[in-house]
Design a protein that fits this description.
single chain; mainly alpha; 79% helix; extended; signal
Length: 134
C-alpha cells in the first residue's frame, strides 16, 4: 500500500505542477503578445501620415486584438513543414559538409605530422632562447 500512496502522491504533484506551469506559460505568452501589439501600435502611431496609411493597409497578416478581443493574434510563423524542409535540405547538409571538412583537415594534419622534425624545431627554438638570455 505505501507504494500506491507514493505513486498517487507523485502523480497528483506532477499534475499540479504541470497545470501550474501550463497556466503560467499561457499568461506570460498573452502578456508578451499584448506588449508586442502595444509596441506595434505605438510604432504605427509614430509613423508620418504618408507612410501610416500604406503600412496599415499592407499589414493584414496580423489580426489586431482590438478587432477581436477574445481571440489570440495570429503571428506569421513558418509552418512546420517549411521548417522541416529547411532543416533537412539546407541546415543538415551544410553542417555535415562543414563538419566533414574540419574532420578531414584534422586527420590530414595528424597523418602528415612529423614528430621528429617537431622535436628538432622545438629543441632549436629553446636553445636559441636560452642562448639569447645568457
Amino acid at each position: 500500500m505505501p507504494k500506491f500512496i507514493a505513486t498517487l502522491a507523485g502523480l497528483v504533484t506532477s499534475g499540479a505542477l504541470l497545470y501550474y506551469f501550463q497556466n503560467e506559460i499561457e499568461n506570460n505568452t498573452s502578456q508578451i503578445r499584448s506588449k508586442l501589439h502595444k509596441t506595434k501600435n505605438q510604432l504605427e502611431d509614430s509613423l508620418p501620415s504618408q507612410l501610416k496609411d500604406s503600412s496599415v493597409s499592407d499589414q493584414n497578416h496580423l489580426i489586431h486584438p482590438s478587432k477581436r478581443p477574445n481571440a489570440r493574434p495570429q503571428l506569421p510563423i513558418p509552418s512546420i513543414t517549411q521548417t522541416q524542409n529547411y532543416i533537412n535540405h539546407r541546415f543538415i547538409p551544410t553542417f555535415k559538409s562543414t563538419w566533414n571538412d574540419q574532420v578531414t583537415n584534422i586527420a590530414n594534419k595528424f597523418t602528415s605530422f612529423d614528430a621528429s622534425e617537431s622535436v628538432k624545431n622545438a629543441k632549436s627554438f629553446i636553445e636559441d632562447k636560452w642562448n639569447k638570455n645568457k
